[in-house]
Amino acid sequence: MSLTVPPTGRGRRVFLGSAATALATRLDIMPLARTAAAQAAAPGQPRTFDLAIAPASANFTGRTRPAMAINGTIPGPLLRFREGEDVVVNVTNRLDETTSLHWHGLIIPSAVDGVPGISDGFWGIPAGTTFTYRLPIRQSGTYWYHAHSGTQEQSGVYGPLIIDPARPDPIVAERDYLVMFSDWTDEGPDRVLANLKRDSSWYNFNQRTLVDLVRELAGAPTAERREAILRDRLDWGNMRMDPTDIEDVASGYTFLANGVPPGGDLTLLFRPGERVRLRLINGSAMTYQDVRIPGLSMTVVQAHGNPVRPVEVDEIRMATAETYDVVVQPREARAYSVLAESTGRQGYARAVLAPREGMPPEPLPPHRPRPVLTMADMNMNPGPTGLDRGTPCPERDQPGQVAPMSAMGDMGGGGMAGMGAGAAPGGARGDGTGVMPGMDHGAMGGGAASGAGHGAMGGGAASGAGHGAMGGMAPRDPFAVDTGAPPGTRVLSYRNLRALSNRYGAARPDRTIEVRLTGNMQRYIWSMNGAMFWNAQPIVLEYGNRVRIRFINETMMNHAMHLHGLWMIPQVGNGDEDPLLHTVNVQPGTTLDVDVVADAEGGWAFHCHLLYHMEAGMMRKVEVRPAGARRLAAACPRG
Ligand SMILES: [Cu+2]
């Protein structure tokens, strides 16, 4: 059976935020085609939601392609729960393969976490069957849900999830909108992965060719769409593409905002002076999105579903799977763009924030320069032993399988040189090739990376300082984010996040476990501590322990590390206000610590949320056991 997803590439969708009630406790959001309706529940009985995952056809590019949809839409319907209730979600699998749904960021029992083979007693939802999830909802905030089976998420099996707080929402806004970014490929995701494995530079070719453009134009259904394609090419798509590792699947993607590609305007209405809450979700399989609203600052009020002290920024780099709530207050009757640029600058998604329907959005601003990785980005990788990072003896999952320098060698000498010598935007990064001989581990030593740059407000200035410090080999701030924004731009860093309630506080960890992020871009192998998922043992934690996980990214790519069932607390220097995150981005060549309090028993997935990295092996099972957890081998003799 085939359901057809309503064409989203053409026409106009307008979403009206309703006027707020005085207490702003119950705002209606209509960000998507529809909200999943709960069946009327008998008193005292849980509300029930029915979802069906089925084959579908989707047209985001002018071509109709096979897809998978939840209740016939991509993204799937909005699920809206209330803190304190128990809900039942029946998921029917109408595919001809096993599927699953995982509730990203929800703290729920392992048995209903939805990862086949890892969640307690769960092996997926076989074709033609219905699985009943019973979810106790004990938190609030903005989250999402997605398949955890193969590459189904990339085919369309994902959707937004909002939990309203039990008490009146402290965040007051007259409008409340959801903006879910995602990436779509006309190619089947299995094909994408096969191509990446065959030749990782497959999607990173130089410019899209003229032939491509002609074909794309010919396939466009309307003149409006053709114009959009041309504008995209001229304004944004025309940059030189180097064989760098910024994005694996460059050029193959169309970026969507609530399922709407650029050119089909997704309009969010406001009246000047109103406060508008935007619930931003990066539901992309592989893409980091640099989000900004030219002409407006954004006040971040919630990170990963958890309330934070309001912090005003101009730009947010959203790693795959991250969620942020921001409040904006447009005072002019203008059509603002809520703009998400992919980090590799291959494209963008946009929603238009406008006082009335049909108001043409303002022209796109100049794109940010595309980041070019240089050896400077790697210069703080302190080496293989763990001895030189201020931690005497971290435990190590699967020790000794990879020598980082050889992993770096795998990047290919030619590739390195090319990256180092590549045109560095703004000239700030110079030629990194000469740095190679300076990669002397002894000379790099240095204290904990988190000691550096407290209070740095991301932005060009902070990261510029990091690069400038190369000579002195000061550790680069692993949390500073460089989006290529001009100096003075406030780019959100995890250091800016201060939890309104971090119930775990600050404390010394019981254990420290080193997790090196390893890989080989050329062969498209991704791993943790040199071992792919299927070759690795679970990481076993003892219930109640506080564990420090030290991520060491030895690769040239970002990895969005996600731990199910347990919050991660990045050690950003804010003491007992360090934020609680479900996904932590670890930038290339950096080291950072997160604390995890093992307060939920069972099996939990722990993986990179870049879909093809996970599929290639960058995943572990974490098991939380009542007592007697097995320690891992120490990386150095105790003494
Ligand atoms: Cu990754």
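^ copper (II) ion complex. The chain has ten helices and 32 strands. The chain has three domains: 3-170, 189-354, 375-625.
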